[in-house]
Amino acid sequence: MDNPLLETTDLVLNGATYKLCFDMGALLRIEKETGINMLGALSAAKWNLTLMMAAFHAALLRFQPEVDFQALQSSLTYEQVLEAGEATLRAYGQAVAPEDGESTDGGEEKNVTTSGSTGETSGDSHDTTSSLTTTNSGD
Q1: 16: which of 69, 77, 88, 103 is 20 to 30 A away, CA to CA?
Q2: How many Cβ atoms are within 10 Å of 42's Cβ, its own excluded?
Q3: CA gap 122, 32 in Å, rounded
Q4: Cross-strand bridge partners of residue 17
Q5: HEC states along the chain?
């Protein structure tokens, strides 16, 4: 069943666009996997890599149930993990934001591009680029 009121966040990784969405199924899945009630306030102390990846995976499932999450997770660079975490938090914030008729960021599209190093400890050489685009939808 499709619900046009569900907020989504788009995340672009390695040229593929993933739509993140926290419906009740996603929130329940996270609680079952981590024991953390996602309906309450999420403190920074609770946000760790285990919770972030569980939340990222759960947020993917509504629109991309076919994604091989283990393969996706294994292919991410450190910078992409941070981007996925940021997008996941943004999607979570949209899902649990008070219903006041306004989106949390005015429906503006934001683009962030980061480059990861090739493993060198100095210099400007970069070969991994990922892009994060978030768009509020469901208005």
Answers
A1: 103
A2: 17
A3: 43
A4: 12
A5: CCCCCCCCEEEEECCEEEEECCCHHHHHHHHHHHCCCCCCCCCCCCCCHHHHHHHHHHHHHCCCCCCCHHHHHHHCCHHHHHHHHHHHHHHHHHHHCCCCCCCCCCCCCEEEEEEEECCCCCCCCEEEEEEEEECCCCC
Cβ atoms 41, 98 nearer than 8 A: no
Residue 136 is which amino acid? N
Digit-coded pLDDT (tens) for 5-59 = 688 899 999 899 999 999 889 999 999 998 888 877 666 667 888 899 999 999 9
Asked whether 107 and 97 are in contact (CB, 8 A), the reply is no
In whole angstroms, how far apart are CA 100 and each of 13, 71, 132? 32, 39, 27
Instruction: Classify 128 in phi/psi space as left (phi over 0), alpha (psi -120 to 50) or beta.
Output: beta
pLDDT tens digits along 54-91:
999 999 999 999 999 999 999 999 999 999 999 999 99
What torsion, rounded to 10 degrees, do the Cα atoms 14, 26, 39, 49 define? -40
